[in-house]
Amino acid sequence: MTAVLTDPDEAVADIPDGATVLIGGFGPAGQPIELVDALRRHGARDLTVVNNNAGNGDTGLAALLATGNVRKIICSFPRQTDSWVFDDLYRSGKIELELVPQGNLAERMRAAGAGIGAFFCPTGVGTPLTEGKEQRTIDGREYVLEYPIKGDFALIKAHRGDEVGNLVYRKTARNFGPVMATAAGTTVAQVAEVVPAGGLDPEAVVTPGIYVDRLVTP
Amino acid sequence: MTAVLTDPDEAVADIPDGATVLIGGFGPAGQPIELVDALRRHGARDLTVVNNNAGNGDTGLAALLATGNVRKIICSFPRQTDSWVFDDLYRSGKIELELVPQGNLAERMRAAGAGIGAFFCPTGVGTPLTEGKEQRTIDGREYVLEYPIKGDFALIKAHRGDEVGNLVYRKTARNFGPVMATAAGTTVAQVAEVVPAGGLDPEAVVTPGIYVDRLVTP
Amino acid sequence: MSLGKQELAAVVAADIPAGSYVNLGIGLPTLVADHLPIGNGVTLHTENGMLGMGRAAEGDEVDWDLVNAGKIPVTETPGASYFHHADSFAMMRGGHLDVCVLGAFQVSVGGDLANWNTGEPGAIPAVGGAMDLAIGARDVYVMMPLFARDGSAKLVDKCSYPLTGVGCVSRVYTDHAVFLLEEDGVAIRETYGISEAELRSRLAL
Amino acid sequence: MSLGKQELAAVVAADIPAGSYVNLGIGLPTLVADHLPIGNGVTLHTENGMLGMGRAAEGDEVDWDLVNAGKIPVTETPGASYFHHADSFAMMRGGHLDVCVLGAFQVSVGGDLANWNTGEPGAIPAVGGAMDLAIGARDVYVMMPLFARDGSAKLVDKCSYPLTGVGCVSRVYTDHAVFLLEEDGVAIRETYGISEAELRSRLAL
């Protein structure tokens, strides 16, 4: 059942030290800024963060990294023109990086949400990113075995939600949100607006409410 | 690029003998009756058909089975109160049955469409349906290795399509359609109506046109 | 007295926590829907791609594009959503449903479930989504008559029928008793028209 | 004369079959979009969840929820659709895109691609969707200057940089020539401001 809240701080207050937190967004698009800011204020330490990038500028995810509370980041594209916060932490050995091809990042979270134990995937065969991984030829093609990425919490941003937690997104801000929502023990979604049950077209719901534990209108 | 047709017979005319044909529907809901009838008239032989069921009554898929042109059916739930056509063929050894748990049927087709070589799945562990399959313990849980099901053709039914092949469905008639569309070399979708490009809400498209080769309004 | 089907369905319904996401299997479990308290936020899932399934459709409500897993026309509740089969089974297999209620031919005291095939010669097997629910739902409740027509118990030491899932059932609701299948054995939570001693003797528990 | 960036983009664009589904990588390949003939039914895919991407957004069109893989605001064409990341990469990895055009540090004559990491000490690696496109698109075209700043060729016998994909590139579009990487070796389709003999000598082909 979905709790409808207005306070981002309340929504993330039980994230413990050491948690793995999936954070939605592709760069700024779809990044749940208010929830990330709340997580920063909350101050949980020793976090593992999963995001496509590693923060932009000095706000949101970058500001969270700057606290030093993120031990490890799992992402596909940390290096950007405005990723200076991450760059400094990385170069000074203060953050661990697991670099994952973007499709594996998405599919490994999907696997976590779908009960798949592992899957054979063609991405990265013969490259340094799959070195040491189990490899197998299936029907004449090479594959590498990849494992699920499960979160303790997911913090995502959607466009609108209804009272039972159904979500719709907006344009390319959808990106990782729907996948992360399925892959975490507790999913917190920030939305611009909450409508009554029945206020969203059932044919157009992208994330069914079963995946959403808390809905926040910050 | 999607071809927009009005003749179901033309839409299935190149299905060869020996083809694997994915046919949408959960019982009658979402079954592309006009396309299945056209396939029956077309007369391709030695077919492998993938569907959740094995035909109802004497029409649609049941009528196709009755021609004797289906060598094998891959499905999850053949036995129904009105599956007499299949029942007779099966009991007289005239059709081969591969019984697959419904979730594996869906996930194996999804894997075919998503480029996954195989996946470890918890369904059916310790049951006769996974006997002889590769098994592995991952994080303390037992899984069985399952392989993709790829179709040469998919015949599906949607509600509306646009000129570039985007599809929306109607209620629980959606079922296997979107998954099958991704898993076949050639996907043929029958729809009640074709609207101009831009006539469907981009946020609510369920099957993007990239997966639809032919759109038929029978 | 032993319970009738509707009484049994009411017992199961009363045990489903408010706010749960629930899948009710074909047959006997379907009856549970009618006994869920209105407004306690239980959301019904149907494997053929829907959350927020409502009651059976009547009269003009019948729409053959809106059916349940048993292919019976149903209705939609406010807050419903539709999704395709791979998404529906990802939901089931990924551990997101709180409870499923299934019928059974046999359940073992260790929680093994047999509900898809009697293994009789000439029988046509059909499994549907039963194996996916068995491994996927957080709690698997079984609802069945305790005794078969020949008087043999369906709660058994070891299933003789082909299995649907291993060690997956946590509770068995029957016309004669409710059983909790626990780590250290079978607990009888309540009995209907039969003493616990007689039950244990008939079941060889 | 060798080609400028826009001229090169026009050459690539002219080779993309009508009706194709195409992904254009970050950087140089992005320029191809401006040269696609209007109305020939090429549909652009962006990895961050969209088919039917339009040109770069201008003025009031800028919407930070609608960006391309390089996080630049873009527009939507009629017939566009949005989907989440797992669906977007399933599309890429499942072999549904006809063509992708990628930039590169190096390409080997056998079609190996190196475009994500120069392996320099202190460099921060970033891979994004490059490895998924390399193995997923039916045809992988590379678009790059033929020579690095130090004069060394970027079409090489064997890549010295870490690989993105093995044997995946089918064509290399450069400022000096278009190369077809075929089973039996490299064919030079056309040259720009340099003779084929000189090219073969500078490249040691």
Notes on the structure:
The complex is a heterotetramer, with two copies of chain A (218 residues) and two copies of chain C (205 residues). With 218 residues, chain A is α/β, with parallel strands linked by helices. Chain A is 23% helix and 28% strand. The mean pLDDT of chain A is 97. Chain C is an alpha/beta fold and 205 residues long. Chain C is built from four helices and twelve strands; from the N terminus they run H-E-E-E-E-H-E-E-E-H-E-E-E-E-E-H. In chain C, helix 2 (85-93) packs across helix 3. The longest helix of chain C has 11 residues, at 5-15. The mean pLDDT of chain C is 95. At the A-B interface, helix 5 and strand 6 of A face helix 5 and strand 6 of B. Strand 6 of chain A pairs antiparallel with strand 6 (118-121) of chain B, so a sheet runs across the interface.
Key words describing this protein structure:
heterotetramer; A: 218 residues; alpha/beta; 8-stranded parallel sheet; globular; C: 205 residues; 9-stranded mixed sheet; 3-stranded mixed sheet; 4 helices; 12 strands; 28% strand
**Share of helix of chain C, binned:** 10-25%
Helix-strand sequence of chain A: EHEHEHEHEHEEEEEEHEEE
What is the number of helices of chain A?
6
Q: In total, how many beta strands of chain C?
A: 12
Q: N- to C-terminal separation of chain A?
A: 20 Å
Largest sheet of chain A: 8 strands, parallel
Oligomer: heterotetramer
Blueprint (SSEs and pairs):
The complex is a heterotetramer, with two copies of chain A (218 residues) and two copies of chain C (205 residues).
Chain A: E1 3-5, H1 8-12, E2 20-23, H2 33-42, E3 47-50, H3 60-66, E4 70-75, H4 84-91, E5 96-99, H5 102-114, E6 118-121, E7 135-138, E8 141-146, E9 151-157, E10 160-162, E11 167-168, H6 177-183, E12 184-190, E13 193-195, E14 214-216
Parallel strand pairs in A: 1-14, 2-3, 2-9, 3-4, 4-5, 9-12, 10-13, 12-14
Antiparallel strand pairs in A: 6-8, 7-8, 10-11
Chain C: H1 5-15, E1 21-24, E2 43-46, E3 50-56, E4 74-82, H2 85-93, E5 99-102, E6 106-108, E7 113-114, H3 130-136, E8 139-143, E9 155-156, E10 169-173, E11 177-182, E12 185-191, H4 196-203
Parallel strand pairs in C: 1-2, 1-5, 5-8, 6-9, 8-10
Antiparallel strand pairs in C: 2-3, 3-4, 6-7, 10-11, 11-12
